Amino acid sequence: MEHLKPSPANSRPLTPISFIERAATVYGDCPSIVYGSATYTWSETYLRCLRVASTLSSMGITRGDVVSVVAPNIPAMYELHFAIPMAGAVLNTVNLRLNAHTISVVLRHAGSKLVFVDYQSESLVLQAISMFPPTLPRPRLVLIAEGNQSRALKPIFVADYGTVLAKGNPNFDWVRPEREFDPLTLNYTSGTTSAPKGVVHSHRGTFLVAIDSLNSWSVPTEAVYLWTLPMFHVNGWSFTWGMAAVGGTNVCIRKFDAAAIYDAIRKYHVTHMCGAPVVLNMLTNVPGVKPLEKPVEILTAGAPPPAAVLHRTESLGFSVSHGYGLTETGGVVIWCAWKKKWDKLPAAERARLKARQGVRSPAIAEMDTIDVETGMSVKRDGKTLGQVVLCGGCVMLGYLKDAEGTAKAMKDGWFFTGDVAVMHPDGYLEIKDRSKDVIISGGENLSSVEVESILYGHPAVNEAAVVARPDEFWGETPCAFVSLKEGVKEKPTEKDVIEYCRERMPRYMVPKTVVLVAELPKTSTGKIQKFVLRDAAKAMGSPNISKL
């Protein structure tokens, strides 16, 4: 078989950008994007992307250049997911809720040549650019005006999005990747720690995770997808490209609002949406909300969702799928694959099972939980903690300009996630914590996630986060930060919450400290910033009553 080998006929580089070309042929007259009163078809969206790519090329953007976007979930943001790579450039979607300093750091680290800026973020980005050192070249700016309409520009802007569209060639021969491992995206980690890293993904890896996610979630042709998940967050978990693959309709909304979400679901007959567990919690806490007329598939990931929140969400008519992924995997790569026999179980048991992260997706070659000291797999007993490690085509190329960080995260043939989990006897994985969030109290390792899950069962609790507080006697003890639901008539005290926990968990797991707060600090994607809470708990010092 020596004559059998790769050739141009069987090894054309894989890229998710090809999805939109096919969508224009198969679903050309079908709606691609709905935004307010505007509706585009797949043929129109494809031509708009070609026009933008053509103009970028004429502006000198070439293969490998980084082009950034600071925008919410609007049509331009969706189009740029295709148009920027079509010019051969690397797409960098920036978290628009970061402060000016952090955006400045991101743009400088990325080496952005051009930045598309939504009009609502104009002053923020201008402030970020003003922080560039005088010796460092500043990226050119393109304004995305309201409704993409042209308007008078400040001198620092080279064009607006409407002009970029108008000048482009709809017959542009878009730039294919030379190799499928060429970089496609540059995403910065969301900031649950204080030092975000630039994660680089290839055309091949993104193609795989997009197809993989459609298959794992069983997304049908012409699904109606509501963009509640920010597209800037890991490129919307790959569904930006995935919706083109199935010819779905992208319903775009500029801002997340729970009441508006329910209106959009009913108006556009939404079938699918995504969101972190905090989104589920918000949807279930809308006063007077009525169950949906038709079920809506909702995928949640990003943090272990409390079983109580899952149960409340499904009682409103949402069909919840649960998965796990990281910026470094480009989307969801572990799924709680549901078994029909579980449908017969009581609601509480179904919610408990659905709270598990699950099994690897087909595009992940291997998944394991290992003892980092020995490198050996931990027992599949649902109790023994180990770090989650992955390998497969969806894993990142590495961290931009950070060889040391890349080598630390990717070694011995594995990507080390930093997440701690147990493996159940049936092969389903369940995340227990980030490695840095495991609390060691009196020599016992306890999971902050388990404590949080019980706290979410309290009828007055809106959100909860548990971190370690230093303790001279125990080393560390659990410290719970809790926000309460609006309109609660009888608000529990800190002592009430502690007593609630004592009745439902082992004594060593019970929070020794409870702090009632108005709101928990979060990243823009809804993740609770535990590093902020850890600092607050550390500042409290050691209590004097821990021995009692």
UniProtKB/TrEMBL annotation:
This protein's record includes keyword DNA repair: no
Sorted UniProt keywords: Ligase, Phenylpropanoid metabolism
AMP-dependent synthetase/ligase domain mapped to chain residues: 21-400
PROSITE patterns reported for this sequence: AMP_BINDING
Metabolic or biological pathway: Phytoalexin biosynthesis; 3,4',5-trihydroxystilbene biosynthesis; 3,4',5-trihydroxystilbene from trans-4-coumarate: step 1/2
SUPFAM superfamilies reported for this sequence: Acetyl-CoA synthetase-like
Domain AMP-binding enzyme C-terminal: start-end pairs: 450-527
GO biological process: phenylpropanoid metabolic process
A Pfam entry, by short name: AMP-binding
InterPro entries according to UniProt: AMP-bd_C, AMP-bd_C_sf, AMP-binding_CS, AMP-dep_synth/lig_dom, ANL_N_sf
Keyword Transferase set for record: no
Any one GO molecular-function label of the UniProt entry: (E)-caffeate-CoA ligase activity
PANTHER family: ACYL-ACTIVATING ENZYME (PTHR43859), ACYL-ACTIVATING ENZYME 8-RELATED (PTHR43859:SF57)
Similarity section: Belongs to the ATP-dependent AMP-binding enzyme family.
Protein's recorded name: 2-methylpropanoate--CoA ligase ccl4
Species the sequence originates in: Salvia divinorum (Maria pastora)
Gene it is expressed from: CCL4
